[in-house]
Specification:
single chain; about 230 residues; mainly alpha; 10 helices; elongated
């Protein structure tokens, strides 16, 4: 399999995982401690959805590693193309570190919240669900999660810059992914409809980049004019 093909596959898989996270995640009313809330948090869907979220984060780095290699193969000595590879390198670094920081929080959501919910159901004490908010707002956890998502946002912008400067791929192809990754942090404050819509946005953006990574690059407006 060529670099372009496995990179395309990684982008598509990452986008699909980002979409499956909000689609599979149960969406109970979290404003009131109820048996339904505890059951949702203790469910297999809760675990599977968050594993998809971690998978999406984890696949970004290899996808961007492949993107960097593709852009390096595309161009020769052109200064613009060299700048594109440099931006892709920084996109890879920020995505790798950001995904690692954010994945730690996802792990706490999977196993910490599920353990609390299972205890609440087992002991018939819904008051234990109050500990979930304590877990989520733990200062170190919040700091690492926020920093990780800000790094992912920076990575998305750098992907857009890399493709814009590459000179061999459609310049605009990275813009939707930049928008999607910049919105990862704020979309967590929205409801299920907003978060599912965001999942579709990231999936479509990843698929768009995958479609541009054909072994023979599409001609750009600049090259067509020469």
């Amino acid at each position: 399999m060529t670099t372009a093909r496995w990179t395309s596959a990684a982008f598509v898989a990452a986008g699909l995982a980002f979409l499956l996270f909000p689609l599979l995640r149960p969406w109970p009313d979290e404003t009131v401690a109820t048996t339904g809330l505890a059951t949702a948090f203790a469910s297999d869907r809760w675990v599977l959805a968050h594993l998809c979220g971690i998978l999406g984060l984890g696949l970004l780095a290899p996808a961007l590693l492949g993107l960097r290699a593709v852009l390096a193969d595309d161009g020769g000595a052109g200064a613009g193309r060299g700048a594109g590879v440099g931006a892709a390198t920084w996109a890879l670094v920020t995505a790798w570190v950001g995904a690692g920081c954010a994945a730690l929080y996802f792990g706490a959501e999977i196993f910490g919240i599920r353990t609390i919910a299972e205890a609440a159901l087992r002991e018939s004490d819904l008051g234990l669900l109050a500990e979930i908010e304590v877990l989520r707002l733990q200062p170190w956890a919040m700091t690492l999660f926020g920093a990780g998502l800000l790094l992912l946002a920076a990575s998305g912008v750098l992907v857009a810059v890399a493709l814009w400067r590459s000179g061999a791929r459609p310049r605009w192809a990275g813009i939707p992914l930049a928008i999607g990754l910049v919105l990862v942090l704020p979309q967590f404050f929205g409801g299920p409809e907003l978060r599912i819509t965001h999942g579709f946005l990231v999936a479509a953006a990843c698929t768009l980049i995958a479609a541009t990574l054909r072994p023979h690059p599409l001609p750009t407006a600049d090259s067509a004019a020469t």
